[in-house]
Amino acid sequence: MISEDAGFEELESIAIAVHSLVGLPTTIRSLKRKGLRLENGKILDRDYTGPILEEVLRTGKTIRGVPKEGTYLGRNVVVSPIFSEDGKVIAAIGIVDLLSVLEMQEIIRTVVNNSHAVVFLWKNKEKWPSEFVSENVVQFGYTVEDFISGRVLYGNIIHPDDLERVKDSLNERIRRGEVNFDIEYRIFTKAGDLHWVNERTFIQRNSEGEITHLQGLVLDITERKKSEEALRKSLETQKMLKTIINNSQAVAFLWENKENLPTVYVSENVTQFGYTVEDFTSGKVPYKSIIHRDDIDSFIKILNRNITEIQDSFGVEYRIFTGDGKTLWVDEKTFIQRDEDGKATHFQGLVVDITERKEAQKMLEIQRELGTELSTTWNFQTMLNLVLDSCLQIDGLDAGGIYLKDELLDLIKLVAYRGISPEFSEKISRYKTDSPEARQIWTEKPIYSLDFYSDTMADAIKREGIKAVAIVPLKYRGEIVGSLNFASHTLDKIPWSVRNFLESIALQVVNYIAPVCIQAELS
User: Fold this and answer.
1) 495: which residues sit within 8 A by CB, 6+ positions away?
2) Which of 111, 113, 390, 465 is 20 to 30 A from 363 via CA?
């Protein structure tokens, strides 16, 4: 008779009977003493207890559950109470829940067969014949029977260009005594399509350490590979675009729609403006701070109008200050980014230096206006003043003079000037026709070098602070009649665009000045 004080001796007969009947791991104990644990027809523990046994003894109810600790941690068990004749709980007996085990096996089978991972058990033989394959191998167009019957050997569906690599990698893992193997390669489906797969294999060895089987999970990763390839091409495209942008005139910006337009991103070619990427992205230089003060109000007005009118993009031209303090004209093409509520959050802009274009437009306008004004006057001094004032509108040119040949005195004389000191004007007021300066003019070629002046004039040039010069001969009917002389105190050299402008002006104005000079001489 079992009692609440029964030990393993009293419990052994009933435990063996139940264990023999169900063939499953069996446990038993009394209310006050520990008991037995049996597996595979043997008593493994004569001083056993478990959390579910103890809970059943406390509650007096059958429990199906999974222990969170103890020998049967994580396994489904069922434990029932044993009652005395007067209805008191005196012991508890439990077994591994067979129904739950079978249900779990079915769940695992269902999960595997409905997943992307195909389970294989291959023999460690040539081309890996299959002993087992899960039913979801149909995703590759094959049946279980194709592999189990030997009609299809797994090695034969691996792409020939990948097969040797798979073999070599597996052999290397085996040689190193590893227990697993992970590799990606291509296989052919039954329809002949090519799929990328990831294989994760456990290398099975017998008691003597010989490789007997390979248990693998084969996962179709074709879509991932396509995504990776698309991403790779996208990154290559981005890299190419970045290279194009960083080697182009267009500087790319991404600004936040906040005070002073803080910069989130700027392309590396912002160095052409005399700044670094860090200057802007660190917040040290807010973009708004480099916009010319005379243009900032109109810029903000245009920006706000396009935001209010819910425009997607707009263009605007304005001036900016470079890192070294110079002024540039830029053309900005901006795309307005909005959130899902339509609120403008960022501005994506391309900023292009258009200073040369603006200067060219300005030069054409100056030349047109000068031609109009010269054609309406016969006053010689007015003509000279018009030429000087027009040319000195060009950025960088801040001094100038006009020389004309005096046949009677056999010299060339400074007949009008701007932007030089009286002392310097006196020194350069006249040159004899055989002087080094005059001889250079007679060559009929423009001069853009300080070498134009003789050594005796070097100190005077230095004191005057002149850094660059342009001397353009005035030729009328095949004869040199004078020259246009301009200088800069700020530029190291006269830009090509300005040179072309001055040479065009010389061709234009000589046709107005020379006839007046000839008329004056005749008079």
Assistant:
1) 396
2) 465
- Is the pLDDT at 56 greater than 60? The verdict is yes
Q: Is 83 left (phi over 0), alpha (psi -120 to 50) or beta?
A: beta
Q: pLDDT tens across 257-284, in order?
A: 998 899 998 888 899 999 999 999 999 9
CA dist., res. 465 & res. 123, Å (int): 93
Amino acid letter at 260?
A: N
Phi, psi (deg, nearest 5) at residue 304: -65, -35
Tokens, residue 279: 């200057």
Q: Which residues contact 256 (CB under 8 A, 6 or more apart)?
A: 262, 263, 264, 345, 346
Spatial distance between the Cα atoms of 216 and 199, rounded to a whole number of angstroms: 6
What would the DSSP string read from start to end of 212-272? EEEEEEEEE-HHHHHHHHHHHHHHHHHHHHHHHHHTSSEEEEEEESSTT--EEEE-GGGGG
Q: What is the pLDDT of residues 289-306, one digit of tens each?
A: 999 999 999 999 999 999
- How high is the pLDDT of residue 210? 86
Q: Rounded mean pLDDT of the chain?
A: 87
Decide: helix, strand or coil at residue 62.
coil
